[in-house]
Amino acid sequence: MSDEQAHERENLTYSLFGQAIRELAQQVADDGYEPDIILSIARGGLFVAGGLGYALDVKNLHVMNVEFYTGVGETLAMPVMLPPVPNVVDLSRKKVLIADDVADTGKTLKLVQDFCAEHVAEARSAVVYEKPHSLVKCDYVWKRTDQWINFPWSVEPPVVRREGQVLDA
Q1: Keyword Nucleus: yes or no (predicted)?
Q2: Contacts within 8 Å (CB) and 24+ apart, 54-61
Q3: How far apart are CA 157 and CA 144, in angstroms?
Q4: Picking from 1-15, 28-42, 56-70, 95-109, which range would have the lowest pLDDT averaged per residue?
């Protein structure tokens, strides 16, 4: 890989994100999958789940907080599920669509899929981007790339920095 390729990035705009969500939702609909619940992996998956919820007419949205990436290319050793964990009673015997922005290593998605496997009737995954080295091959993918992705919600630095506030919850 050349130095120029190493610095290339996938740039997703809000406008292109809207198109991606519609196309991702169409894949789910064309497949005949009718989820009872969309389970979002926070934080990036919140945007995806909200868009898919509207496009697929699913009002039952849940959030799972998972901490893995701590910076560009910086991760914890393993993803960690943070409270509050979804109530398994709410998920039992349901068809679940797990939504996230990217399947990079796939470790976060695998953690959530393993959690769901014990509690739901069926779980499928939908992501905007999937990397070729992901442990999890998602059911619905808008685009595959091996580049770092600049998402419109995370390309700018935070307005304020709050150290350690998530893991202290």
Answers
A1: no
A2: 55/21, 55/22, 55/25, 56/25, 56/28, 56/29, 56/97, 58/97, 60/36, 61/37
A3: 25
A4: 1-15
The three-state secondary structure class of 48 is helix
The model carries a pTM of 0.83
**Pairing verdict, β 61-71 and 74-82:** antiparallel
Position 61 scores a pLDDT of 94
62 within domain boundaries: yes
Give yes or no for a contact between 122 and 13, defined as CB atoms under 8 angstroms apart.
Answer: no
pLDDT at 13: 96
Judge whether 160 lies within some domain.
Answer: no
Number of structural domains the chain divides into:
1
Q: What is the mean pLDDT of residues 5-29?
A: 91
